[in-house]
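Bench notes, bay 3.
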Amino acid sequence: MLVAVLLPAISFAQISSNPNKFLGNITTRGSVEAGGNIPKYYTLWNQITCENESKWSSVEGTRGSFNWSGAENAFTYAQNHNFTYKFHALVWGAQYPNWLESLSAKERFAALTNWFDNAKQKFNTLPMIDVVNEAVGNHQPGNPMMKETLGGGGKTGYDWLIKAFEMAYERWPDAILIYNDYNSIRYDINNYITLVKTLRDAGAPIDAYGNQSHELSSISTSELSSALQRQQNELQMPMFVTELDIDIANDQQQKAQYQKVLPIMWEAPYCAGVTLWGYIHGSTWVDNSGLYKDGAERPAMTWIKEYMATDAAKNAVGPLPGTKKEASIYIRPAALKVARGDALPICVRARMATKTIQKVDLYVEDELIATMTEAPYKTVYNVPSSIASGRKTIKAIVTTTDGSTYERQSGFTPLASTKKRKPYNDVVPQLPGTINVTEYDDGAAGVTYNNASRSSAITSTGQWMDYTVDVAEDGLYSFDAEIASSSTGGMFHLAEYAEDNLNYLTEFVEVPKTGGTSVFKTLHGRLQMPLTAGRHIISLMIDTGGFYINKITFTRYEEAEGSCLLKAFNDTYGVGDHITVSARATARNSSVSEVRFYADNILIGTSTTSPYQCVFVPTEKRSYSMTAIAVNAEGKEKMSNPRILEVTSDTPTDIRTVTSDDETDTPTYNVMGMPVGDDYRGIVIKNGKKYIKK
């Protein structure tokens, strides 16, 4: 495991001696040193980013095999030369491993979580991280897949990005967490600001925004100054110039453009550092951005050195001296939209690296609404019924015991609606217990629900509903959802927008087809994290719709002492076969009350006496994941390991062909559950034997 030493100040052996911000660069063809007659890296730059070596595809090109050598080399080099390092990038809709595309959304999320965990294992602490890269619109073709992988748009439209930042903050709370994108200054500034602002307003742990700055080869000083100031006015966070290059072949024109853009960016008090994206001509991603050509400095490089020696460059103020994050301050309103006259809970997550918080003052617009001196820092803002329309600013000012202050902004939008949030019919479901899916909380659209109906349980992609519930006691809970579907591909998850995290209570639950939209079956699952006793708002998020869901029943889960073993499937099976599924179950210091059997988490039968078994009739040629759960007399559960049942034939096995004049036995039962004498796909069941009619 590598541990970054967060240094009190940047080393001054390089071009920049400014203690408030860095002038950095990237690796060259996978190496730190450019070689040849080029000066050593550490004599030029005081920050390093791997161009490719820390991207997911470079590290885990083969699933489960991680190659960190390139990233480790750069990280160690930065440590040895006393300057800082930026990890690039955790989530990106490009340069992800090819094998990711063959996985389901559920499997992709597990793989992405494993990617985060492995990065944490390798780099226990990191100074800076590009958490998400190029997620605006269709900047990358893999963005829709990544969006699905991380839970979709959800309530904010950007929940998938909020989740990515929460996952990064859980692992690297001291790192400066950055959103990074291109065309953010010139061609796509509106969408860029909307994305970053939404993340900030929703309380995501985003610390800074990154402008790649590839599009500046022809920008004017007035346009650049105006765009940067507009970003800062809207976002009020530190800014990084993350990938600056000027792609001009003519030496003097390149120099002139650097003279235009670099001082404006560098001297902005909200600029925390500038990373140039390559410096060797012929070794950058574009043709003419290099600063060294044939081993010699181009005029732009000579000028950069001269500029960095000026008082203006050396004394420019920055928002993160030493590239250290002292304050982690994130404001999480309960919703970004709220009805007029309603109550809006607000929580300020505040954490200091080295100082002690004395108080947190919270403002809506210019009105002080709360002064909080103890964590958790939370209050409720009663939205006036007469409040004017339009977005409102929330501001937190954190004062530490040494008198220092730190500020963070957020916001919300009052709606024209005056329909307050409350439980459906003023009845709060109790857990353990049942939620009826159409009985989501009363309130305004976009506040308690999206694209939902009281009269229909049909789902649509992007739909979500909130349910206020009371949890009786702390613990893990399992759930049973009544679902119906005529096809596969449906998916949902349960979430909770907690004060300090966006919690995914369940995995992404895949909905198999049940035999039709009116054929309801029970889909079983378990929450991934415990619920605490008390009031919660649980959200049902429809990731891929098209199925019906009636109700969800929650049961407190406790694991039983004992065993549950599902018998192996060693025979050859076909569609329509009458397959006996058997389990052996024991309960230590108790008795087994029942054994439930599941195929792809769908309940297929329950047995209350030994031998515990049920009959399963597959309807498709494919693999089924079979499990059993033994329940003891106290209601505690023991789940078997899954067994795979392979159905390899489109027709039942052990079939003989008969003609219409063949004499057969009088039927006594029909394993398909059909009236005796009826057929099923041309198959007649008589006395336990299967016949194909001709």
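Next record in the batch:
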Amino acid sequence: MTARPASERRSWRASPIGARLARAARRAGRTWGRSLQLRVAASTLVITSLVVIVIGVFLADEITTGMLRAKRNAAIAQASAGLEFARDVLAGVSLGDTSGQLAALDRIKTELAGTGSDAGLFEITILSSPSSTALAPGTGTKIPTDLRQVVRSGNLAVQYARIAVPGSGAPVKGLVVGEPIAAPGGTFELYYLFPLNAEQDTIALVQRTVLLAGLGLVAFLVLITTLVTRQVVRPVRVAAQTAGRLAAGDLAKRMPVRGHDDIAWLGQSFNDMADSLQRQIRRLEEMSRLQQLFTSDVSHELRTPLTTIRMAVELLHAQRQDLAPELARSVELLQAELDRFESLLTDLLEISRYDAGVARLDCEHVDLRSVVNDAVDASRTLAMRHGSELVVHVPDEPVPVLADPRRVERILRNLLGNALDHGESRPVVVTVAADDAAVAVTVRDHGVGLRPGEAGLVFNRFWRADPSRSRLTGGTGLGLAISLEDARLHGGWLQAWGERGLGAQFRLTLPRAVGDPLDSSPLPLEPEALIEVEVPG
């Protein structure tokens, strides 16, 4: 068979009938994958059908073989009994007495045909040997040649063949038993013709009975399997639905429990687990609420003394030239640590807004290139202090996006500060790209990189890859955590990649407009495909 070309197969799939069949196949596949009850019932149907087919074929074959064997044995017994009678009749007929032979043969046929036996109905045909003259013709059935050869050799022969039955149009299946008769008047061939109509009807009845019984058994087993499976699957489905409701926040949802069997024990255990989870979640929610309230209250309460301290420090810092060198240096350190403390307080207030769910976006249509350039310009002083070069790759055409420019710039400044802190004075590369659905910015450094597993930890609050490293920015440990929340507030992604000794890359992906679905990013997370500057070894 010649396979159809690929273009023809594609055109067939694109046709309405092919599309409908493909959809039906996908729906059937989803149903098969989701329904345990369907899989169990179908498996039972297939296995039971195979077993019933094997047993049915075996039973039908055994019954057929047994019936035909009994018929054959009875036919041979009948022929053996008739042989003695035929010999006795032909013993008194001389060789040249033709009329006597005919009378004797006619008597033999008449007497034997009227004899009842377990072999059932039969017809008699007597032929002369070695000629084929029918001295006592029967129903007109032609005796098979190979059967006659066996009989002429002096042996009893049995063969299945088609025989003619009086009153029946076409020949039917039958059994032919032949035996030789040696007499003074010559050698003759005696044939018994047994039609198998009754046996065929019985075999057909047995086959129909076995088929109907097998179908009934299969249907009965499938029904039982479906009912039993349903009793097991229903509690599982209820448990899955209840678990889904619990996961959705409905902590009061419970499974109904009836009886005292294993399913009831499962339901009670599930409900006990749900009660324990509800108590733990409520306790954690209360602790989280108190922690958030404490953080928010402390942050706000510190604002007033911090303002007073700021005024005093600024006054001292303005007059540090009149102070002793030791005091002047102390004033400078005091102002630097005050700046760091104020930055930490600002970050804590921002985190508390996210925890309280009150953070809101102030969106406007902006060109992402300008936001990136502003963040890069704000980080150039820090880059000079680190001895790093900032390399920026932006498209020539505008990159419009509906976003909160203040939060996006804060994300980029945090990423740039992190890259410069860990960049080992090597270039930091910023890349901007866009497609129809999303915009993306990557910040790539060539510094110490990240260990395996640390890419998922860098956005945790107060987490640092190497706490012993000196930091010029005086970071609070909350910058990347706040950046992640800012990205999520836009419906975007903030992801990290890194390898030890190869540096790290952070990717910010935002939808063109807040709320639009986000399926992919215009830039890869791993930096192999990026255009980068040559980095000294």
